[in-house]
UniProtKB/TrEMBL annotation, chain A:
Residues 298-374 form the Aminomethyltransferase C-terminal domain. NCBIfam families: gcvT, PRK00389.1. PANTHER family: AMINOMETHYLTRANSFERASE, AMINOMETHYLTRANSFERASE, MITOCHONDRIAL. The keyword Transferase applies. InterPro entries: GcvT, GcvT/YgfZ/DmdA, GcvT/YgfZ_C, GcvT_C, GCVT_N, TrmE/GcvT-like. Substrate binds at residue 210. This is aminomethyltransferase. Belongs to the GcvT family. The keyword Transferase applies. It comes from Novipirellula aureliae.
TrEMBL record, chain B:
Its cofactor is (R)-lipoate. Pfam families: GCV_H. The keyword Protease does not apply. One of its GO terms (biological process) is glycine decarboxylation via glycine cleavage system. GO terms for cellular component: cytosol; glycine cleavage complex. Residues 27-109 form the Lipoyl-binding domain. It comes from the Bacteria. This is Glycine cleavage system H protein.
Amino acid sequence: MMSELNTNTIALKTPLDAWHRNAGATMVPFAGYEMPIQYSSIVAEHQACRTSAALFDVSHMARLRFDGAGSEQLLDRLLTRKISDMPVGRVRYGLICKDDGGILDDVLVSHLETPSGQRYHLMVVNASNHQKIKDWITPHVADYPTVTMSDRTELTAMIAVQGPQAIEACKKLFSFDIDSLKYYQARIGEQFGKPIIVSRTGYTGEDGIELIVRAEDAVRVWENVLLAGRDQKFIAAGLGARDTLRMEAAMPLYGHELDETIDPISAGLSFACRLKDRSFIGVEALRQVNADGPKKIRVGLVPEGKRPARDGCGILDTSGNPIGVITSGGPSPTLAHPIAMGYVQTDHANDTNYQIDIRGKVVNATRVDLPFYKRTSN
Amino acid sequence: MTRDPSKLLYAESHEWADVSEQDGDKIATVGLSAFAITQLNDLVYMDLPEVGKEVTAGEEFGEVESVKAVSPLYSPVTGEVIEVHSDLPDSLEKLNEDPYDFGWILKVKLSDDSNLSSLMNAEAYEAQCGEAG
């Protein structure tokens, strides 16, 4: 029945590894790390995030720091969005593309300033793309002799605190008022005299913050947040809930909605591509896609019945002709029915009814607007 | 009926079989172990075969899905499906509480019982689960 029960892989461990194990987490190999997939129940952890707040160890995501004059020009060259016009305190989502427009990764870049006034950029990269992105960027760094790229992943930990009560409960924890941080803003503060980067970002569709701390401070910060949210019943949540949460929020995931064969415009990420008056790797290809229109488009689907469609299931038109493929699918704990995202040929993007081939059994499905779930207030 | 898990036979793939004699036939009731159900967690869907279908020991007869993943169900026995627990897919949450009575999945009339000796007793199965955990 289950192959995932017997996995013996030598894996990297995050600074919170022992905490997860003590808390009874089921640990699974993921992107070279052993990560908690769940502590008790994915559904319970998902619901805690939607109603209160949940903590996620996202230390496996890579953190690359860029220092020195020319960093902004380097990042402008690498990213679909302009970085050089970002004021200190801003966070921006962007994509790193190949010359043909295929997506190498989707990343967050923060412009930060240390208490001593030193400014730098910090890029958060998907765990599975850590080495690939470093290898991609390294030769470009060489073009900017004053720029240094340093990998901060092993030296730091990253914790996401996500949910409608996250901000209120965590207010007292930091040396500044985190309520003053607007969505996609970040700053360096302190907690008990130790440096901490706080950004108002996340990957669940909820309000919340993401924290980057020194590796040796990780357990203390994690426990402080849990304590701060004790009355609101904050809980730790694993990668399982993170996946169902981001799916409901229709956030694309690298390796599912995004990969090197997909360009950002087809992926529905035009908002993260500034093509005008710019020169970056892949810009010509993306201008061409923009002019011609994408050949396939990301859509949201709701299959009939209880059976979830999963990654890889074929999408058919109502006559049974293959027109696309599911990239993410599963049950939605909030909506209490299955949901799925996938790509369909552009000329079918506005169809209302589809079919999905779930491993040989064809079910009807309806197209719905994305996201499946949107929070009602901030 | 209260089925005693210590008296059942188990497949490596975590299904149990309770074999009894009825009118000269050997009938196996088949289910999924408590360990497997705990590990799977948050079950959302189960796909069962039709009555009359032939199942083969070690081969897939259906699927069970959790929030996270699809897992195939393998038959621990060989024979013909004579009954399926049709209420089960709509009551998967009850599997956690009662995997050995309410949680039965299939009844199979055995056409070949030669593989039964390769199934584990409860003790051997528990040892396997200990290693997996």
